[in-house]
Amino acid sequence: MNLIKRILGIVWIGLGIGAGIYLIYFQAVPLWAKGGNDLVPAIIYTFVLAPLISIGMSLFGFYSFQGEFDNI
Fold first, then answer.
1. What are the C-alpha distances in Å from 57 to residues 2, 13, 38, 48?
2. How many Cα neighbours within 13 Å face the side chain of 35?
3. What burial class does residue 50 get, using C-beta atoms within 10 Å of its C-beta: 0-12 exposed, 13-18 middle, 19+ buried?
4. For residue 71, what pLDDT is reported?
5. Residue 23 in contact with residue 54, Cβ under 8 Å?
6. Is the overall model pTM greater than 0.85, yes or no?
7. DSSP letter string over 12-51?
8. How many Å apart are CA 61 and CA 14, to the nearest integer?
9. DSSP code of 70?
10. If DSSP codes are grouped into helix, strand and coil, which group holds residue 68?
């Protein structure tokens, strides 16, 4: 079971990186290009959601990979 948790840690790290790329390139960049009223969601995607989600998922995966959740 602990081996599965560590392997899923790598999956979480990959998902975190993928979520960051998706939020920046596929959500925020088109909104930055449109401009106007779309700048507020673009700022939220770029500076709030993308860092929080990608760093949070990657840290969870890193700790899982390190074995921090072996006793749970």
1. 19, 6, 27, 14
2. 0
3. buried
4. 86
5. yes
6. no
7. HHHHHHHHHHIIIIIIIHHHHHH-GGGHHHHHHIIIIIHH
8. 8
9. T
10. coil
Determine contact, residues 9/65, Cβ cutoff 8 Å: yes
Residue 14 tokens, joined: 């990959």
- Distance separating alpha carbons of residues 10 and 55, to the nearest angstrom: 14
27: tokens are 């959500």
Tokens 């390190």, residue located: 66
- Give residue 37's identity as a one-letter amino acid code: N
- List of the chain residues with pLDDT < 50: none
In this structure, what token pair is assigned to residue 4? Answer: 């599965």
